[in-house]
Design brief:
Elements (H helix, E strand, L loop, with lengths): L17 H5 L19 H14 L6 H4 E9 L2 E4 L1 H14 L6 E11 L2 E13 L13 E13 L2 E9 L1 H8 L3 H15 L3 H4 L1 H8 L16 H12 L12 E9 L3 E4 H13 L2 E16 L4 E14 L12 E13 L2 E8 L2 H8 L2
Parallel strand pairs: 1-6, 7-12
Antiparallel strand pairs: 1-2, 3-4, 4-5, 5-6, 7-8, 9-10, 10-11, 11-12
């Protein structure tokens, strides 16, 4: 999508100051049918409605910016409707009243027919002053990474996928993610709910269509879908060979769930083997890919939403094998410099994963 004659380019969130993000020069920079005229482009829409809802505490605006039947998908289960979004936002603010959502990036795509898709990378510094899923208030100052993928049309979000690093939240609050997951799994049993059954249809669908073997693209930015197929289907998948440096820069800096801060091909390789090597009959599905320029085209930012399905059958990052089916809904952001992945943020809900294994 190109601009429509504006002297200003479409907003690059990752490299734009906060003041310019919240006070953009007026005037449309791209075609945005069905959206309010105040929004200069699609990333502006995502950043500013988030600011209004969370920072201005105008939570009821969710009723204006989400459809009444919006489906929000998470690894811990789905919720439906703008009213539920309002209630959940109030609940989060009760736990973390000073929660701030820093817009680290918005990677987006025009998916046609008036539909736009955003992958919003957020870092939230916040203080725990109310009860959370982990336990009573601790008073601790923490920060948590979330990636919110939203499908939008006519000025509203009609479907959303949330990947939040709840394991990092638990660890910073002083809790063991495994113990939190076991408590939640026990509560599921008491409530007659099964997270495994909730994901069963999606699990079967992912496993039914294995990713094809693929050659690494010569330039990662030139074919982001091929890059995703190669990395997830060969580098992250146990037992499938691939040269890591065909996709990753040797100085790769990566952030993964549960406060994993990784540097270099060796650490990323080890993390992938520790996590995904626990699962047999494993497969990935590529659900959505978007790409935007970085630094005016000096690089490229790619967002990939993906789903993994497998069976916990081996020792590894999640302890002795439980034999349970497991599903991960993950989102990965890659920064491509000189044709290779130089930075990566991959997020999924590791507590919800452990909750499936403890069921």
């Amino acid at each position: 999508m190109t601009d429509i004659g504006s002297p200003l380019p479409i907003t690059e969130v990752a490299t734009t100051s906060e003041s310019d993000l919240l006070n953009p020069v007026s005037g449309r920079r791209m075609e945005l049918p069905g959206f309010d005229a105040e929004f200069v482009d699609f990333p502006d829409y995502i950043v500013r409605i988030t600011d209004r809802i969370w920072h201005e505490r105008r939570v009821e605006l969710c009723l204006d910016y989400y459809t009444a039947d919006c489906a929000i998908h998470t690894m811990a289960g789905d919720i439906v409707g703008a009213d539920t979004v309002v209630a959940n936002t109030h609940a989060t603010l009760a736990s973390f009243p000073d929660r701030h959502l820093n817009p680290d990036n918005v990677i987006w795509s025009d998916d046609g027919d008036g539909k736009f898709y955003s992958s919003h990378l957020i870092t939230s510094p916040m203080t725990n002053l109310g009860e959370t899923e982990c336990g009573p208030a601790t008073g601790k100052r923490i920060k948590v990474i979330t990636i919110a993928d939203c499908a939008c049309r006519n000025n509203r979000i009609y479907e959303e996928w949330l990947a939040r690093d709840y394991a990092a939240m638990a660890l910073q609050l002083g809790h063991d993610p495994q113990e939190v997951a076991q408590r939640q799994a026990a509560q599921d049993k008491a409530d007659g709910f099964s997270l495994i059954e909730h994901h069963a249809a999606d699990h079967a669908g992912v496993r039914a269509r294995p990713l094809p073997l693929a050659k690494p693209p010569q330039n990662a930015a030139a074919d982001p879908k091929a890059l995703a197929v190669f990395v997830l289907g060969q580098l992250w998948s146990p037992g499938v060979s691939g040269a890591w440096l065909d996709a990753y820069d040797f100085r790769i800096k990566a952030t993964w769930p549960a406060l994993r801060s990784l540097y270099g091909e060796g650490e990323v390789t080890e993390a992938a083997r520790a996590v995904f090597g626990c699962f047999s009959n494993l497969n990935f599905r590529i659900d959505h890919v978007a790409q935007v320029p970085y630094l005016g085209g000096a690089g490229s930012d790619i967002a990939v939403r993906w789903t993994m399905a497998g069976v916990h059958s081996k020792d590894g990052a999640y302890g002795p094998p439980a034999g349970n089916p497991a599903l991960i809904i993950g989102v990965t952001h890659w920064r491509i410099i000189s044709g290779r992945i130089a930075e990566e943020v991959t997020i999924w809900d590791d507590i919800a994963l452990r909750r499936q294994l403890a069921s």
